[in-house]
Amino acid sequence: MNLLKGGGMDQILDQYLHYLVVEKGLSKNTIEGYQLALNRFLGHLRKKGIQEIGDVKKFDIRAFLLVLRKKGLSAKTLARDLSAIRTFFQFLIQEEILEVNPVEEIESPKMTKTLPEILTLREVEQLLEQPDLRTPLGIRDRAMLEVLYATGMRVSELIRLPVNQVNLESGYVVIYGKGSKERMVPLGSEAMKWVHLYLQTVRERLAKGKESHFLFITRSGRGMSRQRFWKNLKARGLKAGLRKRVTPHLLRHSFASHLLERGADLRSVQMMLGHVDISTTQIYTHVTGERLKKIHQRYHPRG
After folding, report:
1. pLDDT mean over 219-231
2. Are 129 and 123 spatial neighbours (Cβ–Cβ below 8 Å)?
């Protein structure tokens, strides 16, 4: 890295973001989140008259977090910004731009974990049954919903899923998730059936002779946007009469919770979801525990 001690903060930030892309291989969304947080932080420093990164003290970081708190930002946002600042200064120490890390002793804000909402099995079935199977788009949408629920993949992973990463013979799909990390997830017989039907009867008609490496395409033969899929899913949820706010992540939450309810081990679910840290997956054990408590209270004679 060609970084100068005492270099301007913008120059150092650019080098850091380049490092995240080239050496760390982080996803575009993660890098954009870091950049937003650090621009906010550096903007605060400039307002305080701090122009050099080496002049930043622990007090300045605490003052920045206090400003965010006074603006009414959530503990989650504060923790996210502090995480970005922490990794930025770790990078500066690693590159020998700084000798002392001003973030080292600052603790992350305490956060209360909210349990994710999930769909019941009946609600999942109601949602999956909404697409009109008399139309090509209906068959495509049914296949997309089946794959989303069968694999627990993120919406970004679904809409960018290449045809050659789906193996219907072995029943697996290869997913490149955050940080370009690869994972292999079983499809299940229902999802395989609908993907096969979509490929055999619909995809070529939608493509209209155009080449696309994406599995799921629009009527213009192109890949689908996140916004388009979200809009479609919301409409399906309303049509199904579901009172819950139906999002792609709701299906991901339901996928994980339903597996654990039926005895899947936490490590396997972690691998299928693509979580780096198993503590992220553990939230679903709380969901399962809460549901079991409700069932116990409802049906036990002394509940």
Report:
1. 90
2. no
